[in-house]
């Protein structure tokens, strides 16, 4: 499945024919952009160089790509050196970690997944691409499509949560958004589904840790989002740091070649994560740098990021015959084909237009989108006594370290955000309130420590208010790379603040700031209302105010389960039922903890709005699904409340018996409806056996005839199932 246009094939072949081995290897090198360094330290310092050395490498044809620098004018200069001063004039790719926004910052991907609106993520990715390509970039190392079932892991913030079906929808949407309709367009940004594969399954939720995983789980849970991204047109894939059952992902032939190339026909290039080939030595999988280079390259890793190993050892490996030159040519052909596919061979200065970089005419539209994406990502967990929405005439106390904070708004992996445009909680609330409204703002404590007199001033403010908005949560640096936590709770100082404020008796609405599901405790868990606000990006304050004052009825649903306790991790809704599932009646000698049941405090798919949503019974149009047939499943959903609301109607199935035990529920569809007060609608989903397939005990991916439960429900635990039979093929 070639990607380059046939006409450029000839040009690529003629380039290949003229390239020395060193020049071929040069196309496989990815290095930090020291010419226009911009990104804060998001990686450990390895192989550090400087602008002059990088330009010299470019001039010598030793660079395929530079990453994490921005700026159109300087990017143009880099490209000029590549095109005019190197022997063959091959343009370089300019990449960066633009994960959820460039200058305008959107919610962290986990937050956006809570919207259950992939089309929204496509729009925010598109806006991101417009801003990133204006800043002199061709390629983003996003979307992260790792399935995260253990919230102790910090990088769940970058993905779409614990569910594969939702993860596939967002992976494809983000690839489409970044790349747009035409890869050759100046505002098309190459996407990179990462980290291939099973990075979210690291043992203990500890980043970079080993992964021991069943083949079925690997194929049915962790690989599908990558397949969805590749099917959506992704032309690059980034490898993972972890091993997979003892074989590091970055040198895993079964995955990089067996699955990606042979099974899926992926035509694009594979780039390593940062120094992942160098790390094969630390893993104990390679003897030394030369052995690591050989193993990574022969497994199917085309481009090596930052280690310099390919430049240093590949020529010798080709010389010795350990790496066939035909394989080297294949890798270079893929890199050149990607450069051709995005139009770089025709227009090396594509996306390097300084005039575009200073054009801010789209910023207002992007900020409006950021505000809409942010409020659609907010999840209302509880709302006792309808304390929300809050009246603008109420006396409000905004209390907590996030009240005025601007440094913990953007979320992890935000390298280029325009902080001058960030809207804090206080700013957003004040903008939504009339002049002179009663809004008292008190920090109460610092992010991780008490403040002298902080609790006293917070208690005084709470006593003088009709309602407290309690802005607490995780500092931004608690999620993202290398940020695994053993206890997914609030910092103690914030919990103490919450207890003191709640003790005043003033109703509390928690505005939770979080990069993962948290184990909520004490007064935070017991507050009258809880809004999960993730890290919402540039428009945080406005989006939260829209929901708090009822301009927007919260419509987000949890993409990750909120546990009772950290000790339950890894916890995910679609778990097997075990041989001793507990029931409300029977808890002795059952699969549960002494302290807690085997359930979530707030389950996957849960979320409330300001309407009153009621579901009718789930019904199937027939008792059986023919092997090659389809089956309609339907339910009526009504808003019996006085306010309009959006509802995420979810379709779940349970395969009651399988050749491998099956999850108690699996998401197979969802639809977000807007329901006016009094409005009801019949929702219909169509099932076929394709949606019931899994990797069975024989290793084949197929559905198995038998009995199924099916739900149309508001969450992964709600509702009563209907039942149908999948009939064997006649
Ligand atoms: C980091 C991350 C990866 C990122 C890369 C380049 O270690 O794992 O997601 O794209 O290095 O910064």
TrEMBL record:
Catalysed reactions listed for this entry: Hydrolysis of terminal, non-reducing beta-D-glucosyl residues with release of beta-D-glucose
InterPro entries according to UniProt: Cellulose_Degrad_GH3, Fn3-like, GH, Glyco_hydro_3_C, Glyco_hydro_3_C_sf, Glyco_hydro_3_N, Glyco_hydro_3_N_sf, Ig-like_fold
Protein name as catalogued: beta-glucosidase
Coiled coil: none
Keywords: Glycosidase, Hydrolase, Signal
EC number: 3.2.1.21
Pfam family, any one: Fn3-like
Gene Ontology molecular function, alphabetical: hydrolase activity
The UniProt record lists the keyword Hydrolase: yes
Domain Fibronectin type III-like stretches: 647-716
Enzyme class (EC, first level): hydrolase
Family designation: Belongs to the glycosyl hydrolase 3 family.
């Amino acid at each position: 499945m070639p990607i380059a246009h046939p006409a450029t094939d000839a040009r690529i072949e003629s380039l290949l024919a003229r390239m020395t081995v060193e020049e071929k290897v040069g196309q496989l090198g990815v290095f930090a952009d020291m010419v226009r360094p911009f990104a804060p330290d998001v990686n450990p310092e390895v192989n550090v160089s400087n602008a002059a050395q990088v330009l010299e490498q470019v001039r010598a044809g030793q660079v395929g790509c530079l990453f994490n620098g921005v700026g159109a004018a300087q990017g143009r200069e880099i490209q000029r050196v590549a095109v005019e001063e190197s022997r063959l004039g091959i343009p370089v790719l300019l990449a960066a970690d633009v994960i959820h926004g460039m200058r305008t910052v959107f919610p962290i991907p986990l937050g956006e997944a809570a919207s259950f609106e992939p089309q929204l993520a496509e729009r925010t990715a598109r806006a991101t691409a417009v801003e990133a390509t204006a800043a002199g970039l061709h390629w983003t190392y996003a979307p992260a499509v790792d399935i995260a079932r253990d919230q102790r892991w910090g990088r769940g913030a970058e993905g779409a949560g614990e569910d594969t079906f939702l993860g596939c929808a967002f992976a494809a949407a983000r690839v489409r958004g970044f790349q747009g309709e035409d890869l050759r367009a100046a505002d098309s940004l190459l996407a990179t589904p990462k980290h291939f594969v099973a990075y979210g399954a690291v043992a203990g939720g500890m980043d970079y840790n080993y992964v021991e995983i069943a083949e079925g789980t690997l194929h049915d849970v962790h690989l599908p989002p990558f397949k969805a991204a590749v099917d959506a047109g992704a032309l690059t894939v980034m490898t993972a740091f972890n091993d997979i059952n003892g074989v590091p992902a970055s040198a895993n032939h079964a995955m990089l070649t067996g699955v990606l190339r042979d099974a899926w026909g992926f035509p694009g290039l594979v780039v390593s994560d940062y120094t992942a080939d160098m790390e094969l030595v630390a893993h104990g999988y390679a003897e030394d740098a030369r052995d690591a280079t050989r193993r990574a390259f022969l497994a199917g890793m085309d481009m090596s990021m930052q280690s310099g190993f390919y430049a240093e050892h590949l020529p010798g490996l080709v010389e010795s015959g350990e790496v066939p030159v035909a394989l080297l040519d294949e890798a270079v052909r893929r890199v050149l084909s990607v450069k051709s596919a995005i139009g770089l061979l025709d227009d090396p200065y594509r996306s390097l237009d300084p005039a575009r970089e200073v054009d801010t005419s789209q910023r207002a539209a992007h900020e409006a989108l950021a505000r809409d994406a942010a409020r659609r990502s907010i999840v209302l967990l509880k709302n006792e006594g309808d304390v929300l929405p809050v009246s603008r005439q109420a006396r409000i106390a905004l209390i907590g370290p996030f009240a005025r904070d601007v440094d913990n708004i953007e979320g992890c992996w935000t390298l280029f955000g325009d902080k001058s445009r960030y809207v804090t909680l206080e700013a957003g609330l004040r903008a939504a309130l009339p002049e002179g409204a009663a809004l008292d703002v008190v920090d109460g404590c610092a992010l991780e420590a008490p403040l002298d007199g902080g609790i006293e001033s917070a208690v005084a403010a709470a006593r003088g208010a009709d309602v407290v908005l309690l802005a607490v949560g995780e500092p931004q640096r608690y999620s993202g790379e290398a940020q695994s936590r053993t206890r997914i709770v609030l910092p103690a100082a914030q919990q103490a603040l919450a207890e003191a404020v709640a003790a005043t008796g003033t109703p509390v609405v928690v505005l939770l700031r979080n990069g993962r599901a948290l184990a909520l405790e004490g007064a935070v868990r017991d507050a009258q209302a809880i809004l999960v606000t993730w890290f919402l990006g540039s428009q945080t304050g406005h989006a939260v105010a829209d929901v708090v004052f009822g301009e927007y009825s919260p419509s987000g649903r949890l993409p990750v389960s909120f546990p009772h306790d950290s000790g339950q991790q890894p916890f995910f809704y679609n778990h097997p039922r075990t041989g001793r599932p507990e029931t409300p009646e029977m808890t002795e000698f059952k699969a549960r903890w002494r302290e807690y049941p085997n359930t979530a405090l707030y389950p996957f798919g849960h979320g409330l709005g300001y309407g009153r949503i009621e579901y009718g019974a789930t019904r199937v149009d027939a008792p059986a699904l023919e092997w090659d047939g389809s089956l309609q499943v339907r339910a009526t959903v009504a808003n019996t409340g006085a306010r309009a609301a959006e509802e995420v109607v979810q379709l779940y199935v349970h395969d009651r018996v399988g050749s491998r035990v099956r999850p108690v529920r699996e998401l197979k569809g969802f639809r977000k409806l807007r329901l006016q007060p009094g409005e009801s609608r019949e929702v219909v989903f169509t099932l076929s056996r394709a949606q019931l397939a899994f990797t069975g005990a024989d290793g084949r991916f197929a559905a198995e005839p038998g009995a199924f439960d099916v739900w149309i429900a508001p969450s992964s635990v709600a509702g009563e199932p209907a039942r149908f039979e999948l009939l064997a093929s006649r």
